[in-house]
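Recall from the previous lesson that a structure prediction takes nothing but the amino acid sequence as input. Here we apply that procedure to Ndc10 domain-containing protein from Entomortierella parvispora. The sequence below is the only information supplied.
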Amino acid sequence: MQLVREQRRESIKMSTRALYDRYQAVFSKWCTEAGYSDANVIKEKVLRYWTCLTASKEDPSKGIIILPIGMRGKRKGIEDERERGDDNSDSDSDSDGHDSEDTDDDSDSDSDSVNDDLGENVCHSDRGLPANAPSLSTVKLHASAIGELCRQQRVDPDNKVMFRCLERKPMDYPRDLITSYERRVAVTKRATDTDQGSANFVEEDPLENVKMVMVHFWHHNIQGEQSKWTRVITGLRHRADAALRFFMMCRSETTRRMRLIDLFGQNVASAVRKDQEQERKFVLGVVLMTRQGKMNNNGKIRYNVVVRDTDVEACPVGALAFYLLEYWLPTSSSAAPPPRVEDHDWVNYHLLSKSTTRTSEIRYATQYKQTREVQDYLNIGVKGKATHLSRRLGAFLARLTGATHEDISKHGGWGTNRLITHYLDGVDASVALQMAGFENGRTENFWLERNVIPDLELQRMVFPFIERACSNPEDKKHYDPFWIQTIDNIMLDRSIFYGRQEENIKIKKIKKRAARKVLSDEAISRRRHLCLLAHLRKVILQDAAVFLLAENKSFNKN
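The prediction returns the following tokens.
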């Protein structure tokens, strides 16, 4: 048996070596024709070999379409449609695919000469693309690799192997190649009437489009990832995702990276003097705190905020509340177990988590697929990327409600000037209030007909674990003697410090000699999220009462 195994292993080695020798022979022949002194495999050689190989096939539409200047390989079956003269054609390239010596440097900087050196797929910007042409992202990726290779060859002093055509700047024009390709993409779209239907879709009513998406996810819970034991319902998750991306105008990566402790509730009503605290109106704002993003690479804390909408069907706070109710329920439809307030590791759970584990965010492919499916199902036109639709619609709604461009830029994270990023970087709910239907974005105009405070005992039946989270004296890390009173104040829309004066006097006598307790960042974030859940108790009860009305045909089909 051992002998048979050794013979089989030796046979595999022989076949592998034969296959490698055959490939190496082809590569060695190409290196000799290209002017290299040896056939050692290095990155520069492989990239150039791959480029020439894929660009010299008989069928041009199946190959990579970028040929750098100086690599003017002759492609079979392709004739130059610009009908250059014989003299120009003879001097255009030499026998081994490099620039001839009588071509001057100035011709390399001309974009027309760049296009002349390419194949049929890219050289004529006034013609459309072939059916099997690669996507624009593929072209950009390949052009970027070629440009980076050229820069490395120039600055690397240890690079002993240089292209003969390197002195003639063979890879300086990837941007010209991309521009030419983009023109051909535009010609193709114009010829085929692509994107004609979605060109002005945002001019109609952005809020109605978002309401259609949210109602669809409410009724048609998308069947998510399936395993042998469970079937995951992800409708409420995608409903909350779409609502937050629309009203916060945040990018798709922002919602994917959200953790539970990144969300907290705050009274966003206009600040008043301390003696007028009792007259201050309570306006619940759900705040998302981010530290990283496309426009935030230095780790600075940024805030996005949403408030309750006058239209219950499009309310982002309600969408988040019902999703968190499903998230924390023991009978959750997800395959992953729900968080337990006794287990302190839930602070690292992602809001939009995978179906199998709470500590991993959903993939972009999942987010894109569900977004695209609902857009196709509801026949909503898409201009640009599908995952950018909510962000685009949110900006249009804010403009229709009277928000200025500066306020929209700040709310959506487009503002990059130093005043916004370093000084006016706090929570500003003016745009959120305008998008929610309140005139001029002022908290004095905030009023909801359904905002009636339910009975406290009824509220405690929603998220029943909140009271015991920080009220256990044995848990010295998270114990708070004012926790029960704080939660009661939240449920009654009062300040969390309401009614503490008399108790503070008693506590001071007890803790006069004790060291002051300093909470960790994790403990503070944990309490803030639990306070948010306490705020969402009445949101769930109030919105559910509206959904159950017989007049509400969108949500109550019975």
